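Objective 1b of the project was to move from sequence-level analysis to a structural picture of ligand recognition. The entry below was assembled by the postdoctoral researcher (A.K.) and checked by the PI before modelling. It contains the amino acid sequence of the target and the SMILES of the bound compound, coenzyme A.
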Amino acid sequence: MIYNNIKIEIRQEQACDYPMVYDVNLKAFKRKAEARLTDRLRLSDAFIPELSLVAIVDKTVVGHILFTKISIDDDGLQSESLSLAPMAVLPEMQSKGVGSRLVDYGLDRARSLGYKSVIVIGHAKYYSRFGFEPTSKWQIKAPFHVPANAFMAIELVENSLSGIKGIVKYAKEFIEI
Ligand SMILES: CC(C)(COP(=O)(O)OP(=O)(O)OC[C@H]1O[C@@H](n2cnc3c(N)ncnc32)[C@H](O)[C@@H]1OP(=O)(O)O)[C@@H](O)C(=O)NCCC(=O)NCCS
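Corresponding predicted holo structure:
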């Protein structure tokens, strides 16, 4: 797809992409934590290969987004959802629409795979443009302190979070970060 005059291809990550994905995370976050987290999450039960996506420009990986399985725990009653994290775009490729393409494509793919909602920790201004809203709307809480407007969710299917409340449980790899 051509976006902002740049030809961006979004596709499922392949094993040959792993080193480039590591590099993208390292450069975007300017530290190793998210790059290592991504490596660990690939080995986790929470990993969904179809939802580890790369953005390719000129045959090079310039962005990566990962959705992993989480549950929302309401006193032992578990509801399945997805976490969007981490997401990274090479610094020199930021603000060109790559991140938006990854989010839009990922949400569509998640919906077509049958997932019903996604939760993200991030900047309200950025994620609200895709339809994310603070989780306080549904009484869904983070398992650690997060500023209220930074903890957001989106329903991939209308009203799929209606009546869902509880505390989000992340894959243990996130806690070890
Ligand atoms: C966040 C990130 C993935 C966005 O990718 P991108 O390709 O630059 O995103 P887009 O081009 O689709 O959107 C860019 C817009 O997002 C805004 N934006 C980017 N990061 C933002 C942030 N942390 N807070 C608020 N707005 C942000 C930019 O200002 C820009 O706004 P504009 O469209 O009005 O110019 C990228 O900036 C990045 O890798 N950042 C470092 C890693 C990170 O923070 N990841 C997200 C947390 S998991």
